[in-house]
Every structure is written in structure tokens, then in C-alpha cells.
Design goal:
By secondary structure, the chain is α/β, with parallel strands linked by helices. It has two domains: 322 residues, no CATH class; 176 residues, IlvD/EDD C-terminal domain-like (Glucose Oxidase, domain 1), CATH 3.50.30.80. An eight-stranded mixed β-sheet has the order 7-8-12-11-10-9-13-14. α7 packs parallel to α8 and α9 packs antiparallel against α10. The longest helix has 17 residues.
């Protein structure tokens, strides 16, 4: 099999379109990157007091001497460690391990800085969720602060979950002249099956089980160090980073605390010491397209319709929702992982994981197989051969040519669906995105009267009162980035799922986000322009008929244009942007861009 088959014409066309659209901004980025690379690490030109501050804290005598001499590679570690959150708890032991491996490879590593890692699972439906999306920007800035000392030759980024990896990527790309390797921690072992967890949640929403039963199910699902095992944003992050060539081959989904995970962590440290290709050169138009293709082929998190444009912009690349939609039309869905199926990510890995996925996509010409990677050999096509343990040695495995479980991970020749299932909807309300990979075909076109809300708590209260037990399009507005930081509305999934199971025609339309775990109910999310920016979503009234047609890509409001234009925009809810630290993020809400440009405060 050729390593680089002929590229699919749509993948080629979209890549060319992105490259042309980004010509000026990408050129400016690369010019800045190369100017910084030409200067080299500033530690060699720092004053003596500056240099002494940089190695004063070293406790290993050899490391201090090496940093004082300045002749060997210095590696900065940026970590998102905390021991409250399961996905980041394993990182506590990483710095010393990485330092030892870097030292053995002829370099010196220091923890350059830490960045916050918050959990959307803990903050769902709580005030803290209004800080969640903006934490990506804080993490990017924290990464920049960590690297601003200018003393490093390379970077190791330690991050897993929702906003952490995008934030680390945006920050690292601001120092795009530095070779950078991302070091994952892996998913927790499988616990209570995700499908059973979802069933218990829905029973609780119906009042059929009590809170103790719900907590027992949740604790049996989220039960150990590592990422949650469903295919939400955290595990979508890991897939994307490997698709972009910033992990080592096969590193994404090895469990924490295993010999393979330890070996991969050591290998990442060794790799960065000798790595010459900087992150800003690796993350080019090809890598961005590969990431989108991977997202579509696996039915990944809708949050990445925000994160990927923001990440791309940090590298001078303009990625649009139309690029997602055009690629979705030709990229087949190859994975069924909860909420798009019953399997978890450990079963995905056991079925062949990233190696099989990359091999299938590359073999079909759906990937840029020659895209640069931290492996620096053969491009991303080399990732068809994952790193594996033979005894105590980490070696390149064989290509994974067949899925070990086609019900979880399918070949291109027999996909789960012919297309990726991510659609862009347009209409008089603006633009929105919808993921239909978990939506059954008979629920993909919904026409029903609207019931309008300004927060998800009001939706839940109306559900409990029985007011939504009918065909209904639930409209939840003033949930965009300018309004309140764009919290996820994940708690709407169980009640809407109950209504759908009762036979009602149900959909959600919102300028907010759904979780990476959103699933079977059609949801037009990220409506742009948002209501708080004067968008027409603010003119929708109870009883207006909405038609959400994911097949045609339309979101229609069956109200005459003149009548809609004549309506006043609804008043935004009273500002609740205080408490739980929200008052500190007002500047972000005022400066944030639109959802279709990444909901970013940068640029």
C-alpha cells in the first residue's frame, strides 16, 4: 500500500481553499516564527543575574551545571496537574519521570509553569460552568507566561481535558518556533458501561430512581484516575492531537499507571530533546484538515467546531464551519463510541484505535499522509504503526490492517455511515451546527412550535411541570459567549431524551453549547449571531413554528420576515456575572468573538 495515496478531491479542494484564505495571516505567522527561531534561546544572551535566576532552583547538581553552561537542550514542562480531577491526577508523577528521561537523552527539563484544569463534569449546571470556555484563554495565556522566560529549546505539554488541550495548543503556537510534544495521561479503565449510566440518568429525570441510585451509577462510571471513558471533548482532544502529529504514534489511549503508558511518557521526553521541527511548522493547513477529518470520522465533540478554528487561528490559519461541512459530506463515520454507540474509548483502542483509524483514512486518500509530525518520519502515515512494548523495549508495532471489532471501529469499505454527520444549518436565525451521528434518521427533520427559555434551569422546571410533553422545539437563548461565557447545557439531554422516547417530536435550538456527550436529540447549537449580540434568536416567541432540517442544512423560522424584523429583541436576563469568580471574566465577555470564529478573545 502506498504511504501517500492520491488525495480525495474534496479534501484537496478544502485544503487549497483554506491555504488561499490564510495566505497573508499564515505568512505573517511563519515570518514571526522563523525570526524567533533565528534568535535562539535567549538564555545564551541573558545577563548573569537573569541566568542565575533561571537555574537557582535546580536541586540536581548536574542539571544546574548544565543550565549554567547553557550548551545542552533545555526543555520546559507546562503541566495541567491537579489531583482533584481524575484525568489530570496522573500528571503528579510526570515531572520527575520526564526530567529523568530528558536527562538520559542529554538535556535538562524544568517545570516552566502550571495551568488551571477545570472539569465541565463537576461544573455542569453550576455557576462555575460560565468560566469554562474562557478557561481556554486563561490556559493559553498561562502557557505563554510559562514560556515567556525564553530559556527553552523545546516544550512538553501535559494536558487532557476539554479546554486544557486547546488552551495549551494556542499558547504553544504563540511560541511556534519551539519543538513541542504533547504528553497524554490516558483514559481510566472501563467502569459502569456508559449506556447504562445514560439509562440511569434518564430514569432519574423521569423520577423513577432516587438520587442515591444516580450517584451510585455516576461513581461506578467515573471511578479511577484517567479521562472519562465516553467519547466527549477530552477523548476527542486526544484523537485530534494525534491526528495533528503532536503525540507519539499510538500514545492517545494507553491507560494510566501501565508499563506502556510509562514507556510512552519516557519516549516523549526523549523525542523532544532531538526534535527539530517546531510546532508552528507541524500545525499547518494539512494538520488542521487532518484534525477535522479525524473528528468527523469518529463522531467527536461539537465543542471542536469552536476549538479548532481558534487553534488554527493561533497558527495563522482561517478555518470555517463550511470547511467542516464540506469535509463531513465525504468523510465516512468509522467509529461508534458512546454517546454515538455503546462502546467506550478502551473498546475503541482494543478494536484497533488510532492506528487503524489513521490507516483507513490515509489509505482512502482522506488524510494528508505527508503532514509533518513529531515523529519526523514518513508523515502522519507513519502512525499506522503504533508504539508497543516488547518486554521492556518500546518498539514500532505492525500496521493494524483489520478492526478487531467492526461494531466499534469500521473500515472505510463498510462504514457506520457514509458521512461524518456534522452539518451547518443556515436560515433566518443565522448559522448553527448540529451533530447527527447519534440522531436516528426519523428524528433528523423536526417541525414544531417553539417554547422559549433564557436558561436551562427553566427548561428543567417546565419539564417537571409537564409543560413540554408535546411536540416542541426548545429554544434556550442568552447562552452565547457574550451573554454568560457559553456554558454547556448538558443537563438538558436527559429531559429532552425522555420526551423523544415518549414519541414527541423534539429538538433544541440554542446559542449555547452542548457537551461533547450530546447525543440522540437533534440540537442546533452555537447559533450565530447570539441573542446577546442582537441576533434574531432574541426575536423568537413562544408558539412560533421552527423547522430544523438536518438533511437540507436549514434552520427555518416560519414567521414572515417583515413581522420578525418588526419585533423587538427580548431583554437579556439580569446580569448574573458575579460570584464564583465570574466578575473577573467580564472583560472576556465584552471582547469575545463569535462562535463561528472560535469564540475567542484573541485576534
Amino acid at each position: 500500500m502506498s504511504l501517500h495515496p492520491v488525495l480525495h478531491p474534496v479534501v484537496d479542494a478544502v485544503t487549497r481553499r483554506i491555504r488561499e484564505r490564510s495566505r497573508t495571516s499564515r505568512a505573517a505567522y511563519l515570518e514571526r516564527l522563523r525570526a524567533a527561531a533565528a534568535q535562539g534561546p535567549r538564555r545564551r544572551s541573558l545577563g548573569c543575574a537573569n541566568r542565575a535566576h533561571g537555574f537557582a532552583g535546580c536541586t540536581a547538581a548536574d542539571d544546574k551545571a548544565a543550565l549554567r553552561d547553557g550548551a545542552i537542550p533545555a526543555i520546559g514542562i507546562v503541566t495541567s496537574y491537579n489531583d482533584m480531577l481524575s484525568a489530570h491526577q496522573p500528571y503528579g508523577a510526570y515531572p520527575e519521570r520526564l526530567k529523568a528521561a530528558v536527562r538520559a537523552a542529554g538535556g535538562v527539563a524544568q517545570v516552566a509553569g502550571g495551568v488551571p484544569a477545570m472539569c465541565d463534569g463537576v461544573t455542569q449546571g453550576e455557576p462555575g460552568m460560565e468560566l469554562s470556555l474562557f478557561s481556554r484563554e486563561v490556559i493559553a495565556m498561562g502557557t505563554a507566561v510559562a514560556l515567556s522566560h525564553g530559556t527553552f529549546d523545546g516544550v512538553l505539554c501535559l494536558g487532557v481535558c476539554d479546554k486544557i488541550v486547546p488552551g495549551l495548543l494556542i499558547g504553544a503556537l504563540s511560541f511556534g518556533h519551539l519543538p513541542t510534544v504533547f504528553v497524554p495521561a490516558g483514559p481510566m479503565p472501563s467502569g459502569l458501561p456508559n449506556k447504562e449510566k445514560g439509562r440511569i440518568r434518564q430514569l432519574y429525570a423521569e423520577g423513577k430512581v432516587d438520587k442515591d441510585a444516580l450517584l451510585e451509577a455516576e461513581a461506578a462510571s467515573y471511578h479511577a484516575p484517567g479521562t472519562c471513558t465516553f467519547y466527549g471533548t477530552a477523548n476527542s482532544n486526544q484523537m485530534l492531537v494525534e491526528m495533528m502529529g503532536l503525540h507519539l504514534p499510538g500514545a492517545s489511549f494507553a491507560n494510566p499507571g501501565t508499563p506502556l503508558r510509562d514507556a510512552l511518557t519516557d519516549a516523549a521526553a526523549r523525542r523532544v530533546v532531538g526534535l527539530r521541527t517546531p510546532i508552528g511548522e507541524i500545525v499547518d493547513e494539512r494538520a488542521v484538515v487532518n484534525a477535522v477529518v479525524g473528528l468527523l470520522a469518529t463522531g467527536g465533540s461539537t465543542n471542536h467546531t469552536l476549538h479548532l478554528p481558534a487553534i488554527a487561528a493561533a497558527a495563522g490559519i482561517a478555518l470555517s464551519w463550511e470547511d467542516f461541512a464540506d469535509l463531513s459530506a465525504v468523510v465516512p463515520l468509522l467509529a461508534r463510541v458512546y454517546p454515538n454507540g455503546s462502546a467506550d474509548v478502551n473498546q475503541f483502542e482494543a478494536a484497533g484505535g488510532m492506528a487503524f483509524l489513521i490507516g483507513e483514512l490515509a489509505g482512502a486518500g482522506l488524510l494528508h499522509g505527508d503532514a509533518a509530525t513529531v515523529w519526523e518520519e514518513e508523515g502522519i502515515a507513519a502512525y499506522r504503526r503504533p508504539l508497543r512494548l516488547e518486554g521492556e523495549a518500546l518498539v514500532r508495532g505492525e500496521e493494524v490492517r483489520e478492526s478487531r471489532d467492526p461494531a466499534v471501529l469500521a473500515p472505510v469499505s463498510a462504514p457506520m455511515a457514509a458521512e461524518g454527520g456534522l452539518r451547518v444549518l443556515t436560515g433566518p436565525l443565522g448559522r448553527a451546527v448540529v451533530k447527527v451521528s447519534a440522531v436516528k434518521p426519523d428524528h433528523r427533520v423536526i417541525e414544531a412550535p417553539a417554547r422559549v427559555f433564557a436558561d436551562q434551569e427553566s427548561v428543567q422546571a417546565a419539564f417537571r411541570r409537564g409543560e413540554l410533553h408535546r411536540d416542541v422545539v426548545v429554544v434556550v437563548r442568552f447562552q452565547g459567549p457574550k451573554a454568560n461565557g457559553m456554558p454547556e447545557l448538558h443537563k438538558l439531554t436527559p429531559p429532552l431524551g425522555v420526551l423523544q422516547d415518549l414519541g414527541y417530536r423534539v429538538a433544541l435550538v440554542t446559542d449555547g453549547r452542548m457537551s461533547g456527550a450530546s447525543g440522540k436529540v437533534p440540537a442546533a447549537i452555537h447559533v450565530t449571531p447570539e441573542a446577546a449580540a442582537g441576533g434574531p434568536l432574541g426575536r423568537v416567541r413562544d408558539g412560533d413554528v421552527l423547522r430544523l432540517d438536518t438533511e437540507r442544512g436549514t434552520l427555518e423560522l416560519l414567521v414572515e420576515a417583515a413581522e420578525l424584523d418588526a419585533r423587538p429583541v427580548a431583554d437579556a436576563p439580569a446580569d448574573a456575572g458575579a460570584g464564583c469568580g465570574r466578575e473577573l471574566f467580564g472583560v472576556f465577555r465584552r471582547a469575545v468573538g463569535s462562535a463561528d470564529s472560535g469564540a475567542s478573545v484573541f485576534g
